[in-house]
Amino acid sequence: MEVNKETVKKIAHLSRLQFTDQEEDKLVGEMTNILSWMEKLNELDTTTVEPLIHMSAELNVVREDIVKDELPHKNALLNAPKKDSDYFRVPKVIE
Amino acid sequence: MSSVSIPAEVTKSISASRKAIEGGSLSLTSLVQHFIGQIELHNPKVNAFVAVYGNEALAEADRIEQKIKAGTAGKLAGAVIGIKDVLAYQNHGLQSGSKILDNFVSQFTGTAVQRLIDADAIIIGRQNCDEFAMGSASKNPWFGTVKNFANPEKVAGGSSGGSAAAVQACMCHASIGSDTGGSVRQPAAFTGTVGLKPTYSRISRWGLVAYASSFDCIGPIAHNVEDSALLLEVMAGADTHDSTCSSKPVDAYSKAELSGKLKIAVLKQSFSEGVQPEIKNALNTKIEHWKSLGYTVEEVDFSLLDYLLNIYYIITTAEASSNLSRFDGVRYGYRSEKATDLESLYKLSRSEGFGPEVKRRIMLGTFVLSASYYDAYFTKAQKVRRLVKEQTEELLSKYDFLVCPTTPTVAFGINEKVDNPIEMYLNDIFTVQANVCGIPAISIPLGENADKLPFGLQIMAGAFQESKLLAFAKQNEISTLA
């Protein structure tokens, strides 16, 4: 897989990351190498194989819906980088 | 350092510690003081701990000592444990080795840690690791590199490098790490300790910072198999906070015994070119020993070995990119000062808060999950994962154990393998199989090279066969008490 700079920019945006021009150039090379290496799997024929999605053998684990106060409001706000008495604060969203 | 002389034995074995306290020849307080002294002495060089809970540990020692005397103490009374910086412990810092969790204080205690505390273990501190457990060298961009206590120019391995080095340097009895692709076993091999990765879902992941959820396992690092078994016994079992956690009953792992003539499969690739000669020789000696006991030992070719790392890196980066999307600078952790709007808040906080390896993996994971490439990479890897799991299960239906070296080499130099991520990834060649298949695996010391650098033997068993695995490991362990 040949990754170009435009792809790196697009993936960076989807990842909510941003890179300097230099870092982008480096990622072009690294991602091309690693993705090409990953493609080794194409040597194997898997047309009749179902993908393995779940690793746990537990099925349909259900429980009663009990109301609990697992994380009190005050504690939920404790680690916030910016907050007021009730909410997390972020830069203005609507003009 | 405490003035009381502490025999080495009680610092390297939980049961020896407990016995000495019960017999009155050791006080838990002086043992904790001794460990704190060891940390003060060696940590500036080894960099295993990022936080030490000295005063709390001493207060606990006093409380637990009373319980021991009253005969009401739990299974782990007398044990002093360090925890990797990926495990939540209420009112204590938790950063997953990352700047993105700057100043984060855990608001609850994860199940595994809570069960240790409930069994009267003392938590002595939080241990350095690769950022978000992504790495094999514990070279943390924010907290610095963990050094191998046998040679400070070598790595301690990773990602649970701090946890392994802390045990190696006798700063605590044991540590609790996490293993996504070998992160407990590889550092254990590099430090001459015992590292256990249980069956996937054996221990609840509640309170473990998620890296790759279909691989992540909590596991102990200790001086010996007995302590590892005891720690697993305490931490394992169903948990209402993790619906993937197995409801199977927990065996008395610390009392497991072997029976009958065993059938052992030795991975053919154990003797391939990349494996260091000292490691091959030591493994051969083991094989001869097993044969002399009348065990069947056969070399097996696992043809899919060459695909394991490719599967591992596709699926783990995908799962990581999804798991790490929660770090957005809004609700907790680091927030960039430069943000002007919501999008730049996300992007700047994440770009400044994550280190280079984490960002590389988020990028790769986002790529393999993107609409145009999802089937070609992610689904393909999930299909090959099934093939690997089935082939491994077939092998383990014919043999009791599958063995190989834990790593192809001893601990590498701190400045080696820095420029090529793939070369670094190849270090995990033997350990990832257990995570790809969800089976249990243990690394026990196998020997040392001429430079006194340790290496390990890895033993894998079928899912939920921990009892048999631990009994066999115990039969093959080298005493570390000398």
Describe this structure in words.
The complex is a heterodimer of chains A (95) and B (482). Chain A has 95 residues and is mostly helical. In chain A, 36% of the residues lie in helices and 0% in strands. Chain A has a domain at 5-42: Orthogonal Bundle (Histone, subunit A). In chain A, helix 1 packs across helix 2 (21-38). The model of chain A has no long low-confidence stretch (mean pLDDT 95). Chain A is flat, with a radius of gyration of 23 Å. Chain B is an alpha/beta fold and 482 residues long. Chain B folds into two domains: 1-304 and 381-482, Amidase signature (AS) enzymes (Alpha-Beta Complex), CATH 3.90.1300; 310-375, no CATH class. Chain B contains 16 helices and 15 strands. Chain B has helices at 8-12, 14-22, 28-46, 54-70, 111-118, 161-168, 185-191, 225-235, 277-292, 308-323, 342-353, 356-369, 374-398, 421-425, 432-437, 466-476, and strands at residues 49-52, 80-84, 122-127, 139-140, 144-145, 147-148, 151-155, 174-179, 194-197, 217-222, 263-267, 296-300, 401-405, 441-448, 454-460. In chain B, the strands form three sheets. In chain B, strands 1-3-2-8-10-9-14-15-13-11-12 form an eleven-stranded mixed β-sheet, sandwiched between helices. A two-stranded antiparallel ribbon of chain B has the order 4-5. In chain B, strands 6-7 form a two-stranded antiparallel sheet. In chain B, helix 9 links the parallel strand 11 and strand 12 (296-300). In chain B, helix 3 (28-46) runs antiparallel to helix 4, helix 6 runs parallel beside helix 7 and helix 8 packs antiparallel against helix 16. The longest helix of chain B has 25 residues, at 374-398. The radius of gyration of chain B is 21 Å and the shape is globular. The two termini of chain B are 22 Å apart. The relative contact order of chain B is 0.13. The model of chain B has no long low-confidence stretch (mean pLDDT 96).
Instruction: Briefly note the structural class of the backbone of chain B.
Output: alpha/beta
Shape of chain A: flat
Global Rg of chain A: 23 Å
CATH topology of the largest domain in chain B: Amidase signature (AS) enzymes
Total number of domains of chain B: 2
Question: Which band does the percent of strand residues of chain B land in?
Answer: 5-15%
Give the beta-strand count of chain A: 0
Multimerization state: heterodimer
Could you tell me the strand content of chain A as a percent range?
Answer: under 5%
Number of helices of chain B: 16
Total strand segments of chain B: 15
The main pleated sheet of chain A reads as: none
> Class by helix and strand content of chain A?
mainly alpha
